[in-house]
């Protein structure tokens, strides 16, 4: 053990490894996948559970209570697991992050499988402990047309990914407040989109209950809508980030003034 420490210190002195690498051990993919599975499970169990309880027990939680529950559980899981896996819990966020270069594309399929598995397990738990009737379905189904829900999902997921990009992914952001910003955004989106589409913003959130309770009405809107919205939101925010060209322009102007 002593020899290993001495070799690391020697490598550090020679510049072969960075101080960050020596103080922050690498997180293995298996640990990230477990974090995504557990985090998605908790999000779906609490969020969908509040929907089921509200329907089964005469609106005891109320619609505002459901909105707050979704926001709080996402915020809690971000702070609990964000430093492990990035706290995606959402295939749309995972795909967008990879296309923006913030996340390894090789890990995308594994993340998505973990998220779907977490959602299915949570939905199965809820179905097991509650007498879920068709009227108490805790998945997402269109209140009107599927096209209407599709558009709503695009818009609210755009807002969500835009906030994630600004509050959590941008190096200039105060990241300790990122969980609060994302949680509040989800809460507000559920207030607006909930009565229309169910405010999924997350393919895993819709697919899990649909598989467990075998109810797939309008499921395409909840798979493609969030992915399209997240892509637009992520790339829209990218336009606001400084580039190498902008830094060169600033430096050239400063040189000109001198």
Give structural notes.
With 258 residues, the chain is an all-alpha fold. The protein has a single domain (29-241), classed as Glycerol uptake facilitator protein (Up-down Bundle), CATH 1.20.1080.10. 73% of the residues lie in helices and 0% in strands. The chain contains 11 helices and no strands. It has helices at residues 2-14, 19-23, 29-56, 63-85, 91-99, 108-129, 146-169, 178-197, 203-213, 219-238, 244-257. It is globular. The relative contact order is 0.14.
Mean pLDDT: 86
Amino-to-carboxy terminus distance: 56 Å
Low-confidence stretches: 16-22
Query: What is the number of helical segments per DSSP (H or I, 4+ residues)?
Result: 11
Strand residue percentage: under 5%
What is the number of beta strands? Answer: 0
SS class: mainly alpha
CATH secondary-structure class? Mainly Alpha
Largest sheet composition: none
The rounded Rg comes to 21 Å
The appropriate CATH architecture is Up-down Bundle
What's the overall geometry?
globular
Question: How many domains is the backbone divided into?
Answer: 1
CATH fold-type name: Glycerol uptake facilitator protein
CATH superfamily: Glycerol uptake facilitator protein
Considering DSSP H and I runs of 4 or more, what fraction of the residues is helical?
A: over 70%
| Helix/strand order | HHHHHHHHHHH
Membrane topology: Multi-pass membrane protein
Keywords: Membrane, Transmembrane, Transmembrane helix, Transport
Protein name: Aquaporin NIP-type
Pfam families: MIP (PF00230)
């Amino acid at each position: 053990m002593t020899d290993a420490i001495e070799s690391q210190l020697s490598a550090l002195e020679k510049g072969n490894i960075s101080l960050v690498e020596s103080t922050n051990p690498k997180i293995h993919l298996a640990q990230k996948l477990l974090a995504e599975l557990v985090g998605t499970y908790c999000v779906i169990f609490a969020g969908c559970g509040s929907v089921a309880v509200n329907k089964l027990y005469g609106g005891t939680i109320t619609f505002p209570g459901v909105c707050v529950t979704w926001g709080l559980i996402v915020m809690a899981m971000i702070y609990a697991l964000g430093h492990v896996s990035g706290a995606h819990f959402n295939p749309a966020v995972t795909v967008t992050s990879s296309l923006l270069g913030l996340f390894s594309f090789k890990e995308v399929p594994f993340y998505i499988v973990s998220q779907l598995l977490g959602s299915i397990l949570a939905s199965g738990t809820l179905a097991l402990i509650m007498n879920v009737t068709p009227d108490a379905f805790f998945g997402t189904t269109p209140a009107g047309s599927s096209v209407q829900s599709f558009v709503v999902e695009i818009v609210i997921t755009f807002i969500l990914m835009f906030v994630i990009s600004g509050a959590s992914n941008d190096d200039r952001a105060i990241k300790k407040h990122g969980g609060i910003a994302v949680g509040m955004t989800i809460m507000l989106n559920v207030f607006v989109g909930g009565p229309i589409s169910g405010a999924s913003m997350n393919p895993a959130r819709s697919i899990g209950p649909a598989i467990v309770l075998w109810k797939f009405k309008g499921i395409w809107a909840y798979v493609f809508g969030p992915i399209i919205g997240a892509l637009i939101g992520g790339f829209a925010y990218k336009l606001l980030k400084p580039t190498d060209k902008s830094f060169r322009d600033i430096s050239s102007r400063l040189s000109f003034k001198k």
